[in-house]
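A reminder from the course coordinator: this example appears on the midterm review sheet, so study it carefully.

Given structure:
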């Protein structure tokens, strides 16, 4: 059973070793899930940063590590309301609505979601970030 939904921004920072140690530890211990939207965005990110050759590894890792939560009509309707009222992107609204509709917390590094009900903000580690090109 999923107890926390991991947002795309947090998952990318996790893979790039950019999360603070407390957040990284919580992520490793928790029973985590991702939205199908995050699954899509991670694959798109790999293509964007020219790491498509790593795609099979990341796909396998995501499928083995996380519950992947599909979209539903209720999630889509809630996301439309969120996108309209908060001016969120479609992706952010879908991911946030996925957490809300499933009654679980959302862990994100996205400052647009910081302070929203049900959101755990995942700060960046205080060090020089790893480049996407590496």
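Designed residues:
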């Amino acid at each position: 059973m999923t107890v926390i939904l991991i947002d795309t921004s947090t998952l990318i920072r996790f893979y790039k070793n950019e999360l603070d140690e407390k957040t990284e530890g919580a992520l490793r211990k928790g029973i985590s899930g991702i939205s199908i939207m995050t699954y899509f965005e991670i694959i798109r990110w790999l293509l964007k940063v020219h790491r498509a050759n790593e795609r099979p590894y990341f796909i396998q890792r995501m499928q083995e590590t996380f519950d992947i939560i599909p979209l539903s009509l209720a999630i889509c309707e809630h996301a439309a309301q969120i996108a309209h009222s908060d001016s969120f992107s479609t992706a952010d609204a879908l991911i946030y609505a996925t957490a809300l509709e499933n009654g679980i917390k959302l862990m994100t590094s996205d400052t647009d979601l910081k302070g929203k009900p049900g959101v755990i903000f995942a700060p960046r580690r205080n060090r020089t970030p790893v480049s996407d090109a590496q």
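The beta strands are 4-6, 32-35, 67-69, 105-108, 119-121. Residues 4-121 form a domain with the Rossmann fold fold (CATH 3.40.50.1010).
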